[in-house]
Amino acid sequence: MQIQNFSTQDFSLWDRFYRAHFFNSLSGFKSLTLVGTLNLQGQPNLALFSNIVHLGADPALVGFINRPLAAASHTLSNLEATGSFTCNLVPAGLEEKAHQTSAKYASDQDEFDAVGLQHQWEEGIQAPFVKESFVKYALEWVETIPIRHNGTFLVIGQVVKVLVPQNLVGKDGFINLTKAATMTSLGIDGYSLPGPLSRYAYAKPDRPVEILRL
Ligand SMILES: Cc1cc2nc3c(=O)[nH]c(=O)nc-3n(C[C@H](O)[C@H](O)[C@H](O)COP(=O)(O)O)c2cc1C
Fold first, then answer.
1. Which of 33, 50, 94 to mutate to test the pocket of ligand 1 (most atoms within 8 A of CB)?
2. Mind spelling out the 3-state secondary structure of the chain?
3. pTM to 2 decimals?
4. Per-residue pLDDT for 33 more than 90?
């Protein structure tokens, strides 16, 4: 196999779209997630995010990277104003509609309606869920950490409610997302379904690898 060897000088010569595709895909497959919010006037907003990261289980914290405000501001300003947002994992078959939510719709345009997805309202949660998503959770906004180096933000929320089909949650709490056929994304426009799943017991230096039954 011929290996290409790129370095900083090469990156600066690339066209900006080539560079964006290259580096967006370099860090690998991500969880494809629709983030639902509401503004203070009660206008719903839905946008696609993939740079989602688990930050801790106690308290249950999830973060995502928001692009600079000039590029994407509705989700961030809504969740900071109301303190509430939902994350809705995108099941196979919904990726086309999910992709379309990433278009720059005006702030008074509801992306749920624009792409043909349904709002789901849950008692005590201000932000809308996506009805068509099987695995979804609501968060209370905790903090936004500006990343000064490039104008992006790490947005952190605490999980306050989870909606998940019972048959996906194992005895030990593991959520088998392959059964739910949740999509991953690669780069800014590639979508893929994960392949077969394996699980291994907690690794210890003095113990051989043990395969867990699913
Ligand atoms: C596959 C895919 C993944 C994306 N992931 C992110 C992301 O992690 N962070 C981000 O800020 N924008 C991401 N975007 C772009 C947003 O969806 C887009 O900027 C959207 O218009 C933001 O909407 P808002 O202004 O309503 O928040 C992604 C787009 C696509 C197609």
1. 50
2. CCCCCCCHHHHHHCCHHHHHHHHHHHCCCEECEEEEEECCCCCEEEEEECCEEEEEECCEEEEEEECCCCCCCHHHHHHHHHCEEEEEECECCCHHHHHHCCCCCCCCCCHHHHHCCCEECCCCCCCCEECCCCCEEEEEEEEEEEECCCCEEEEEEEEEEEECCHHHECCCCCECCCCCCECEEECCCEEECCCCCCEECCCCCCCCCCEECC
3. 0.97
4. yes
